[in-house]
Design a protein that fits this description.
The protein has 6 helices and 9 strands. A 5-stranded mixed beta sheet has the order 5-4-3-8-9.
């Protein structure tokens, strides 16, 4: 079942690369009492994700923060080493975007937003979306129909939804 507006996000453990190596990030702790934007991409360094989706959030970070967003998270079914390198390559890390790995896709599957596209080598990846979670409850969900599209899930579209 696909998650929808009004649903509580399930518990999940993500991974990020910290100073001492991989670190676990508990979603419930990240969301508790906070307004958090999560945007997910099919894969780090893939064309639309790299040239459109991440840059759209880099462009609007200051405006999201001004509207009360406590944290912006970029999520992908990639390893934390790739996510760290990608955050540095795109300027996302410098902009304050938290780059998190859902390494086995457990969260992505739990919210019903996984897909596979064998012709391009994507297996058990995340559909492209952006959401706003208020204290863990989805208040906005902008889900793209196609993994190559980045319109309603772009940073500017999510900013308009606030």
């Amino acid at each position: 079942m696909t998650i929808s507006t009004g649903d509580r996000l399930p518990e999940a453990t993500f991974v990020r690369l910290g100073e001492a190596g991989p670190e676990e990030v508990k979603l419930s702790e990240t969301l508790a009492g906070r307004k958090v934007v999560i945007f997910a991409v099919p894969g780090a360094f893939t064309p639309t994700c790299h040239s459109a989706h991440v840059p759209s959030f880099v462009r609007v970070m200051d405006q999201l923060t001004a509207k009360g967003v406590d944290e912006v998270i970029c999520l992908a079914v990639n390893d934390p080493f790739v996510m760290k390198a990608w955050g540095e390559a795109t300027g996302a890390t410098a902009a304050g975007i938290t780059m998190l790995s859902d390494p086995q896709g457990d969260f992505t599957k739990a919210i019903g937003l996984d897909f596979t596209a064998l012709p391009v080598g994507l297996v058990s990846r995340s559909r492209r979306y952006a959401l706003i979670a208020d204290d863990g409850v989805v208040s906005v969900l902008n889900l793209e129909e196609s993994p190559g599209e980045c319109g309603i899930s772009a940073g500017e579209a999510l900013l308009e939804a606030l």
